[in-house]
Amino acid sequence: MSSKRFADSQASIGQSSAPIGLFDSGVGGLTVLREVYRQLPSESVIYFGDTARLPYGKRSPAEILQYVREILTWMEQQGTKMVIMACNTSSALALEAVRSEFSVPVLGLILPGARAAVQQGRRIGVIATPATAASRAYSRAILEINADTEVWEVGCPEFVPLIEADRLHDPYTTAIAQAYLELLLQQQIDTLVYGCTHYPYLAPILRQLLPASVKLVDPAVSVVAAAAQELDLLALRNLRLPTPTRFCVSGSPQTFSQLAAPWLGYTPIVESIVPAQLIAQAPILEAID
């Protein structure tokens, strides 16, 4: 092998062993991370939760776009080979704007989720953050794939704060879910899409309130499958042992670690990065158990 071919092959191996970036406003993106663990177990991951600025679903499109640009800039600095927006609000409001701005491939949840929904049914309900629902991103994507479907999107402003506050077993959460589902139940949906990565945590409640015939669609499954295809296409599959997942948040590391532990099955070490540091592209200052 020539020295140039050897150098090129070493560079390729180095790039393939780079981590995948994954971000969300909080713990919701852990549902996508679990799919990465299941479908891409050899890949290393950097997870960022923008917990100081959650919930994203009540933010303006301009704010979301600014946050996403900051996070993607930071992700590129960390040497990621791909970034998955593990956040439907970001995917709906910022993906198209930022895709051409960054050299790293950026994947969103909307299109993979829409494709999965159309494969399941024709009367499709979407529960989402107010920002995602207002964007009608799922409706547009679903109808573009199959114009014969009917789609109803419902904004659910209280779900993310309730999940982040660990109130899944609170009767109030069930009552709120019942209220949000009322319109969709009236429309006799046959499929329900989790239009927010936090919402799979609500599965036991939703399953209790929905008819057994209604199929639940988690876009996390589909976006990670799309990521796997992209890695294969770009010859970027990791050929080495993965490194432990690196967790970073803009808010309290302790709060995130405690909330994430039951869903991960272990207590993560979490680093703190404040939003100002993201803007300034400054180094990480703190790491705690």
From TrEMBL:
<dbReference type="InterPro" id="IPR033134">
    <property type="entry name" value="Asp/Glu_racemase_AS_2"/>
</dbReference>
<comment type="pathway">
    <text>Cell wall biogenesis; peptidoglycan biosynthesis.</text>
</comment>
<keyword id="KW-0413">Isomerase</keyword>
<comment type="similarity">
    <text>Belongs to the aspartate/glutamate racemases family.</text>
</comment>
<keyword id="KW-0961">Cell wall biogenesis/degradation</keyword>
<keyword id="KW-0133">Cell shape</keyword>
<feature type="binding site">
    <location>
        <begin position="197"/>
        <end position="198"/>
    </location>
    <ligand>
        <name>substrate</name>
    </ligand>
</feature>
<dbReference type="InterPro" id="IPR001920">
    <property type="entry name" value="Asp/Glu_race"/>
</dbReference>
<feature type="active site" description="Proton donor/acceptor">
    <location>
        <position position="196"/>
    </location>
</feature>
<dbReference type="InterPro" id="IPR015942">
    <property type="entry name" value="Asp/Glu/hydantoin_racemase"/>
</dbReference>
<feature type="active site" description="Proton donor/acceptor">
    <location>
        <position position="87"/>
    </location>
</feature>
<dbReference type="GO" id="GO:0008881">
    <property type="term" value="F:glutamate racemase activity"/>
</dbReference>
<comment type="function">
    <text>Provides the (R)-glutamate required for cell wall biosynthesis.</text>
</comment>
<protein>
    <recommendedName>
        <fullName>Glutamate racemase</fullName>
        <ecNumber>5.1.1.3</ecNumber>
    </recommendedName>
</protein>
<dbReference type="Pfam" id="PF01177">
    <property type="entry name" value="Asp_Glu_race"/>
</dbReference>
<dbReference type="InterPro" id="IPR004391">
    <property type="entry name" value="Glu_race"/>
</dbReference>
<feature type="binding site">
    <location>
        <begin position="88"/>
        <end position="89"/>
    </location>
    <ligand>
        <name>substrate</name>
    </ligand>
</feature>
<feature type="binding site">
    <location>
        <begin position="56"/>
        <end position="57"/>
    </location>
    <ligand>
        <name>substrate</name>
    </ligand>
</feature>
<keyword id="KW-0573">Peptidoglycan synthesis</keyword>
<feature type="binding site">
    <location>
        <begin position="24"/>
        <end position="25"/>
    </location>
    <ligand>
        <name>substrate</name>
    </ligand>
</feature>
<dbReference type="InterPro" id="IPR018187">
    <property type="entry name" value="Asp/Glu_racemase_AS_1"/>
</dbReference>
